[in-house]
Amino acid sequence: MTPVNEFNGKKVFVLGLARSGRAVALLLEQLGAQVTVNEGQALEDSPQAQELLGQGIRVVAGGHPVELLDEGFELMVKNPGIPYNHPMVVKAKELGLPIWTEVEVAYRVYPHSMIGITGSNGKTTTTMMVAAILEEAGRQPVLAGNIGFPASEVLPQVTTEQQVVMELSSFQLMGVEAFHPHIAVINNILPSHLDYHDSFEEYRKAKWAIQSQMTADDFLILNWNQALSQELAQETQAQVLAFSTQEKVNGAYLEDGYLVYQGEPVMLAAQLGVPGEHNIENALAAILVVKQLGVDNEAIQRALAAFSGVKHRLQEVAEIEGVRFYNDSKSTNILATQKALSGFENSQVILIAGGLDRGNDLSELLPDIQGLKAMVILGEVAPRLEALAEEAGVASYPASEVVAATKQAFELAQKGDVVLFSPANASWDMYKNFEERGEVFLAAVKELEEA
């Protein structure tokens, strides 16, 4: 861990626990800060709060009294999931406190070369692809951020021989100042999390913050299929490298079925271990990252051919009686489901979709669902999905929840078909998060396997 004196004696307010809050509180205490943790859960319901108390860290649990902030704090470090309209955050703004996420604290104890990856869709898969290639090349990748372990838990232990790969959400990036990756990827920027961000413009700024400290010695990797990326490329000090499935670019692109880096074929797209055009984009981004680190084509080929996907992101689960099952629970928006469908022949797909109704324009899905074998629909948005299916000329079947939907889809399928669980909507009407929803689907498929 790099010696850091800036936190010694500083009064720091940590808002919210979970894993990242616990990790940053322990790190700040180690760095000599006077830490107060504020957790909404009651003390008896929060093992993390009890642990911190046992370590001698001050914890105020069971609510968020705004008067706590009148104690002369110099910094707030908030859990990324807590929105900026939360009363404690509003009060901190009024007091002029810097408001960071734990990524910023962690970076200051490890200000060395790292890779940062963000985007509305594809960031988890790209992060895992990069890590898989670096592992194959013997580069000792360490995952942190929005995937793996909290940055403030991992980075203090990392050596300069290891390569840090960080997946970063817009929530995390809204709270960074000095954070400075050597290589950054923005897979895409599309309307998302607008219930957290006040506007698309605020969301865009949060994503764009990943490059705010980058210089001409750094590399920013952008999706050239997006007009917005091309516009933003004019607004960075970093060297811009592009990836595209539509044209030759300064970077990596798809040409004659090959993934090509700066004119050199790296591997056939058909060799990728995961289907879909979106995974070709993810692979191109990953190739650009590792090529800046000198990784050879053989390591890239081996890693990407063996790459089987990320849990809940177009994850191939099983084949039962010739029917393949895919878990794409992480598809919480329309674009993600469009990308998932692009990897299959619609006439062989039974799509399970539905969830929280956020009022999205479902008509954007219309061309993508035409020709589907069937749809099984569920959740709050089901009536609107039923109308959409009818407009597309696709038979739809209602289901009360994911287990019933999975069984219904299997009954409709024949050998050679695909059951694709790609909801296109958030999970919160029925499940705690997309992971829980995906686990229910996985359990339902396992039950069918064992029947």
From TrEMBL:
<dbReference type="GO" id="GO:0008764">
    <property type="term" value="F:UDP-N-acetylmuramoylalanine-D-glutamate ligase activity"/>
</dbReference>
<dbReference type="GO" id="GO:0051301">
    <property type="term" value="P:cell division"/>
</dbReference>
<dbReference type="Pfam" id="PF21799">
    <property type="entry name" value="MurD-like_N"/>
</dbReference>
<keyword id="KW-0067">ATP-binding</keyword>
<dbReference type="InterPro" id="IPR013221">
    <property type="entry name" value="Mur_ligase_cen"/>
</dbReference>
<keyword id="KW-0133">Cell shape</keyword>
<keyword id="KW-0132">Cell division</keyword>
<feature type="domain" description="Mur ligase C-terminal">
    <location>
        <begin position="312"/>
        <end position="424"/>
    </location>
</feature>
<comment type="similarity">
    <text>Belongs to the MurCDEF family.</text>
</comment>
<dbReference type="InterPro" id="IPR004101">
    <property type="entry name" value="Mur_ligase_C"/>
</dbReference>
<comment type="function">
    <text>Cell wall formation. Catalyzes the addition of glutamate to the nucleotide precursor UDP-N-acetylmuramoyl-L-alanine (UMA).</text>
</comment>
<comment type="pathway">
    <text>Cell wall biogenesis; peptidoglycan biosynthesis.</text>
</comment>
<keyword id="KW-0131">Cell cycle</keyword>
<keyword id="KW-0547">Nucleotide-binding</keyword>
<keyword id="KW-0573">Peptidoglycan synthesis</keyword>
<protein>
    <recommendedName>
        <fullName>UDP-N-acetylmuramoylalanine--D-glutamate ligase</fullName>
        <ecNumber>6.3.2.9</ecNumber>
    </recommendedName>
</protein>
<feature type="domain" description="Mur ligase central">
    <location>
        <begin position="117"/>
        <end position="289"/>
    </location>
</feature>
<dbReference type="GO" id="GO:0009252">
    <property type="term" value="P:peptidoglycan biosynthetic process"/>
</dbReference>
<keyword id="KW-0436">Ligase</keyword>
<dbReference type="Pfam" id="PF08245">
    <property type="entry name" value="Mur_ligase_M"/>
</dbReference>
<keyword id="KW-0961">Cell wall biogenesis/degradation</keyword>
<dbReference type="GO" id="GO:0008360">
    <property type="term" value="P:regulation of cell shape"/>
</dbReference>
<keyword id="KW-0963">Cytoplasm</keyword>
<dbReference type="GO" id="GO:0005524">
    <property type="term" value="F:ATP binding"/>
</dbReference>
<dbReference type="InterPro" id="IPR005762">
    <property type="entry name" value="MurD"/>
</dbReference>
<dbReference type="GO" id="GO:0005737">
    <property type="term" value="C:cytoplasm"/>
</dbReference>
<dbReference type="InterPro" id="IPR036565">
    <property type="entry name" value="Mur-like_cat_sf"/>
</dbReference>
<dbReference type="GO" id="GO:0071555">
    <property type="term" value="P:cell wall organization"/>
</dbReference>
<feature type="binding site">
    <location>
        <begin position="119"/>
        <end position="125"/>
    </location>
    <ligand>
        <name>ATP</name>
    </ligand>
</feature>
<dbReference type="Pfam" id="PF02875">
    <property type="entry name" value="Mur_ligase_C"/>
</dbReference>
<dbReference type="InterPro" id="IPR036615">
    <property type="entry name" value="Mur_ligase_C_dom_sf"/>
</dbReference>
